[in-house]
Amino acid sequence: MSQKNILITGGAGFIGSHVVRLFVNKYPEYKIINLDKLTYAGNLENIRDIESKPNYKFVKGDIQDKDFLVSLFESEKISHVIHLAAESHVDRSISGPMDFIMTNIVGTANLLEAARSSWKEGDHIFYHVSTDEVYGSLGDEGFFTEKTGYDPRSPYSASKASSDHLVRAYYHTYKLPVKLSNCSNNYGSHHFPEKLIPLMINNIKNNKPLPVYGKGENVRDRPWVEDHARAIDTIFHNGKIGESYNVGGWNEWTNIALVKFLCQIMDRKLNRQPGESEKLITYVTDRAGHDLRYAIDATKIKNELGWEPSIKFEEGLEKTVDWYLQNEKWVNDITSGEYQKYYAAHYNS
Ligand code: NAD
Ligand code: TYD
Description:
single chain, alpha/beta, Rossmann fold, 7-stranded parallel β-sheet, two-stranded parallel sheet, 11 strands, about 40% helix, about 15% strand, binds nicotinamide-adenine-dinucleotide, binds thymidine-5'-diphosphate
């Protein structure tokens, strides 16, 4: 069997760091090259534990730079790609869409071009990691399946939908061996605290207001990030070329119910009176174009590849809260500087 030199993009981010860790530890025979620009969301502390492993290499670089990618494919003899690098926060895509267009669309096109020009024959996979937000918004009923039509509504989801379309176009037009997955809202350790769950944990701890958009009735499905990383491993190895797989947690929560549940956990962990943290909940102006509900039908990956979530949400959330409470330095470092400017501009406007 030929050597696999796997380029994982975005491996210093939230999900990417879990994928890199899993692959580096589970497959010592593969070489893992982690390419990341280290934007505000990228953090080498996320993968400190594996940085000295012999099958791992970190490369700082930008997927917007096609020439750099072409030479990286040649110098590292890249045979496989797992593409996670992206601008990922919906609110930032509303205030500044161009970074999303340049990284998520143009960056993905650059990677596809680098693969197309470098890969001739042999064992190759271009695996694109995407989101369920490409499907748009559900009402109270129904689920997103792999056959649901695309209807993205935020600049973030539109940029991810565009990149999914490009990946499929390279499969149909150039026979590039692609795979895709579309997953719902992950939770777990190393999640940047601009996203709902880590933001709320951090604010509850610091007795700061808990900004719930609108009435808090929007629904998100919540898979555990380590289950998502396992799904990526499963699809990478056993998924069919040219196909996509929906990944989800069978775990829907309204934002307000989730925030109240987090308040209960935090009251217990911080020895507060029951109900004390809930007093911090503050309803704020709704997000523009806020999608009401995301819910995944993950039957295909369960039936065809045998993947399903491994952990109950209550247990995963407890582990997540513990991780944030035990990693104060990580949180403090990441929430200084740029984060404070973003937070002030976003929540005080
Ligand atoms: P993240 O924002 O935590 O991490 C993104 C990483 O990409 C960062 O390390 C960043 O430095 C890097 N990056 C950004 N622009 C880059 C560029 N131009 N060149 C190279 N690196 C760059 O994001 P995440 O939540 O870990 O999401 C990872 C991927 O998974 C994204 O493609 C996202 O669309 C997708 N996804 C996320 C979720 C979720 O719940 N977070 C769900 C489904 C799919
Ligand atoms: P987020 O974590 O940004 O993920 P996404 O927009 O990709 O689903 O938001 C999750 C949900 O939480 C979404 O319905 C918006 C809501 N939300 C708030 O109510 N307050 C906040 O401060 C944030 C960041 C999100």
